Amino acid sequence: MGRPPCCDKANVKRGPWTAEEDAKILAYVATHGIGNWTLVPQKAGLNRCGKSCRLRWTNYLRPDLKHDNFTPQEEDCILELHKTIGSRWSLIAKQLPGRTDNDVKNYWNTKLKKKLINMGIDPVTHKPFAQVFAEYGKISGLPIQNATNHIQFYNNTNQNNQLFIFSNETSTPHHHLQQNYSTQIYTRETLQTLSFSEVSSTNSSFSSLQSQLPSSSSTSTSTWNDYILGDPLTSSGTHQRQGTFLSNQVEEMHPVEQPTCSPAMDSFVDTILARDKQMLMDFPPLLDVYLDY
DNA sequence: AAGCAGATCAACCGCCCACCC
DNA sequence: GGGGTGGGCGGTTGATCTGCT
């Protein structure tokens, strides 16, 4: 048997709050302060659930709340904290005066997540998709599709059927939205029609790769379609390479050791502890938050 | 101008946990 | 120690807004 409902849901008002209801809450809090929310509807003369009253106060009526747009500094802070502690919205909101967990959560879901995806960054791990895919292959025991030191090509697509090309020559940026991952995003259709030089001209990292390729492959007649690798996340692409030519050429030029599977990986607990350590170094104010595992 | 799709955000839901008796 | 309760939390929903065709 579950917990009984906090109120008679059939007989309480739901939906948007009116100015009159807001005024009642404000008047009640001004007189009595914040206390037992289950008694607030009765004492304030509201036909609302106590929980709903608390939510209205904490997310909208509190006088210390900001109602303007998020600043770039706040955005950076959310990104850094989300990277470190994940979707613990209330903890993140505590570092942003005047913002609620609901504000932060909505901002993340509607703006920041999409921004990262469009930049070719996985919003869960905060790593470039290429790295995530490579690690996916490592975890699942699949061969790394193209483990070169200089460039990686994946024909993984996002929801918009965009294709990502990554160079891993750049180091991990500190501020995700202000640095260049050397990531180019094309639709599959577009890329298949572009010549190598057309694409590489947009990015110095790709230009440098072009100069390392055999002369026959770096002519404008070669298209990127020749170099697209199989998608490691799909069954058809798992063990198959479409662009074996480039893969072989690059691997010959820059042989790397194929990473082995799980034995070399840290344990889950080690990973969590390392993340917390990093979080506390980056955000000393969180030192007063007790994290129990 | 109308209809549609996507974006936004306030509000709700249900689970969890700390506290109190 | 155990059950009941209030409050906090993250995830989800749905009404409204906005922009595009």
UniProtKB/TrEMBL annotation:
Main location: nucleus
Protein location: Nucleus
Keyword list, A-Z: Developmental protein, DNA-binding, Nucleus, Repeat, Transcription, Transcription regulation
SUPFAM superfamilies on file: Homeodomain-like (SSF46689)
PROSITE patterns noted in UniProt: HTH_MYB, MYB_LIKE
GO molecular function: transcription cis-regulatory region binding
One family name in Pfam for this protein: Myb_DNA-binding
Residue ranges of every copy of the HTH myb-type domain listed in the record: 9-65, 66-116
GO biological process, one term: pollen development
Keyword Mitochondrion: no
Keyword Transcription regulation set for record: yes
Domain Myb-like, first and last residues per copy: 9-61, 62-112
Record-level GO cellular component terms: nucleus
Superkingdom field: Eukaryota
Protein's UniProt name: Uncharacterized protein
Organism expressing this protein natively: Solanum bulbocastanum
Species classification: Eukaryota, Viridiplantae, Streptophyta, Embryophyta, Tracheophyta
